[in-house]
Structures are given as structure tokens and as C-alpha cells.
Amino acid sequence: MSNPAYKPDEDAATIFQEDTWLQGALVMCIAYGSVATLAIQCFFMLVRGLTRAKFKRDFPLVLFVMIMFTLSTIFIGTAMQFTQQAYVDQLLGTLFLKQIMSVSPWGAVNFTLGFWCFSLALNVLATFLIVSRLLLYRFRLARVLGSGHGAQYTSVVAMVVESELLYTAFLILFIVPFVLNHPLENVFIQCIALIQAISALMIVYRVAAGHGWTKDTYAQVSTRMHSTIQLSNLSTLRAAPSASHVTQESKISSSGITVSQDVYMTKEYSSVEAV
Question: Is there a contact between 227 and 221 (Cβ–Cβ < 8 Å)?
Fold first, then answer.
């Protein structure tokens, strides 16, 4: 008995190619849902309890979230329109393109692999340099003030790594099938633009939630460092007599009472303790 379901008269490789492209469009819709969720959460977290001072500080982030959400919406709309035309309205559009396309010397050059490999290398290198710099500052701060003063740097490092790791993973998942000329590349190539938006919104979400590095965080860390330095100087002042040169002076007052005093001299200061 023959199969009553209609199937296009195409080979299995072509059908699998079209299947992966359609599945990539579905994954792209899931990624857009993540973008919309993060954008809404970031927007309400930034405008919650809005004051004039907070508005001046958070307005660039609010504007950035709105721009990313708008661009992602335009992207998903045009991608869905393209999918509809490719599989419904103009199912045999490739035949028309084959008829009208002309031979170009640039057609034999594959810029796609070079572009995405350069993007991958640039993101990995930039992330490595940022993380290395932050860890270097954390090491210097912890060596001077103690290990408890580097927590903010660790939080920023985790924020940067988490946001870039998602984009790097999807980029690798696309590049490997693309190099192997496997149709699975169609599943991931459609999501890369939205993954970039998700990575950026993840950083904004961490900052809006108070886990990132803001101007208030810098003020708190600076105040904590100043207090620690003052306490360290105070401890040095109290311990100074043990490492100072001590001299003793005695005087007899007009009433016949002998007054003696120890004088502690150092290179930076002198203190007098009357006995």
C-alpha cells in the first residue's frame, strides 16, 4: 500500500536540508522568547522606584534594552516572513533565482567562514583580556587589603564569562557543521543574532539586580579601602614605640616636683608621652 501523504519529489539530502532550516526557525522563536523575557525583566527592574538621580544613571541602560528588544523584534519578524515565502508562498523560488543570477567572481570566495572565525576569535580574546585584567586587580587588592575585598571583581568576572560563553558556544555549534558542510548548520545560524542580544541583556540584568559594578559599588569599595587604610595607619601609630628611638628627659618644676617624659622619634612623626 502506497503512502497517501504528499512528499515533494526531492532526494533525502534536500529534504533534510529543508527540515533543519525549518527547525532552526523554531529554535529562533525560542531564542526570541528569551530575549523578550529578559528585556521585560530588565525594563521593570530599571524603572522600579525611579527617581531623578536614578533616572540619569539608568536611562542609558533603559534605552539600550528598548533598542535591543526593538531590533530583535524586527529580526524575528523578517525571518518569519522569509520562512513563509520560502516554504509556502514561493516554494520554488530557488529556480527563479537560478535563472536571474549571473556569474560573479566573488561567488567562489567563501567569506562566511572567515567572518565567523574572526568573530569567534575576537570575542574569546576580548573576554580573556577583560577577565585577566579584572583578576589582576582583584589579586592586587586582596594582597593589600585582604581576600574579602575582591568579591566585586569576582562577580564582574562571572558576569562577563557567563554572557560570552553562550554566544561562543552557539558560534562553535555553527562553525563546526559549516566546515563539515552538514545541514545542521541551519539550526544554529538563524539564532546567532538573538544569542548576541541575550548575552548583552544578561549583563544588563546582572547590573540591574545589583550584581554588577556600578558607581555606587565603586564608592562603597573606595570607602571600605579608605577605612581599612586608616585602621592600618592607626595600628602602626600604636606599635611605633617598639621600633622608635626612645629618649628620656627630666625637669624639676618650681615646686620641687620632678617631671620626666619619654620622647619617641621616628622618620615620619614624633609622639610624646608624659609620665
Answer: no
- The boundaries of the domain holding residue 254 are 244-274
Helix (H) or strand (E) holding 153: helix 151-179
| Each residue's pLDDT expressed in tens, for the chain with a length of 275 residues | 456 566 666 777 878 888 888 899 999 999 999 999 999 999 988 888 777 777 777 888 899 999 999 999 999 999 998 888 877 776 665 665 566 566 666 666 678 888 899 999 999 999 999 999 888 888 888 787 776 666 777 778 888 888 888 999 999 999 999 999 888 888 898 889 999 999 999 988 888 887 655 445 444 545 554 454 454 544 544 444 444 454 555 555 555 555 455 554 544 444 444 43
- Pair (224, 256) in one structural domain: no
Residues 263, 221 share a domain: no
Q: Coil, strand or helix: which one is 181?
A: coil
Q: Are residues 30 and 156 in the same domain?
A: yes
Q: Classify each residue of 83-105 as buried b or exposed e, where b means 16 or more C-beta atoms within 10 Å of its C-beta.
A: beebeeeeeeeeeeeeeeeeeee
Whether residue 180 sits in one domain with residue 128: yes
* Whether the model pTM is above 0.85: no
Closest CA to 152 of 134, 132, 130, 126: 134
- Is 239 domain-assigned? no
Check whether residue 135 and residue 248 sit in a common domain. no
Amino acid at 214: T
Q: What total of structural domains would you count in the chain?
A: 2
